[in-house]
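Good morning C.,

I know you're traveling, so I'll keep this short. The sequence:
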Amino acid sequence: MKRIAQGYYVGERPLFGEQDLIIEDTIFTDGESPLKESANIKLYGSMFKWKYPLWYAKNIYAKDCTWFEMARAGVWYTEHITVEDCQIEAPKNFRRCKDLILRGVSFPNAGETLWNCSGVVLDHVTAKGDYFAMNSSDMKIDGLTLYGNYPFDGARNVEIHNARLLSKDAFWNSENVTVYDSFISGEYLGWNAKNLTLINCTVESLQGMCYIDNLVMKNCKLIHTTLAFEYSTVKADISGKIDSVLNPSGGWITADSIGDLTIEKDKVDPSKTIICCRDCSRREAC
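The tokens, ready to paste straight into the viewer:
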């Protein structure tokens, strides 16, 4: 493979269509699409300072690299890319990519990032921004820390471990999402989702887990979570209390106690939901 070290590129498409390159300690600045249509590229310690650096590329490996703020829309329509130990300051990154691995990556400005991607692995990624991972599919995630609203809207076939999500409206319209050993704080969690499973998770939410078709919660905590489960079909095993439950449409809910249980017969059929409170002196529905 040809090696480029300490290069400095200005202008549009300086390495357009190049293949089989090792690029080290190189700066791409003031010019769009420097590596567009490239293939079999390895990048080490390099910097992108302008727009669209890696579009329609294949077989890319980047380590210890930096995407600065103006390297916007940095990686679109790219296949088979691994990014390790990189800082990506630019928003709107990673769109319509396939076979994507991000390991040890930070996104301080992750607005509208990771849209419509498939075959995604996220390993200890930190991101701040709204609409993260919209409409992406076949994702495996471990150690994600996310600050931002509306993540995973429309996502499908997602497995998440050891995450911390400070996120309003997470997992809206999603399908086949399973979250393990994670902390989620934010209003309106999971609305309109299908097959959402939370295992060993801690949740804090206003009107969380509503309008869900097949919600499963195993050994979860609901901290100051109110008006939960409205119009959801649910199988929930909750450790501790639930502050309030409103009009679940079916299934069963088990908790130590429920502060305020509202089931309105003109809106849902009470016979379709079993409520069991472990610490309740009165267990009419158990």
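Safe travels,
E.
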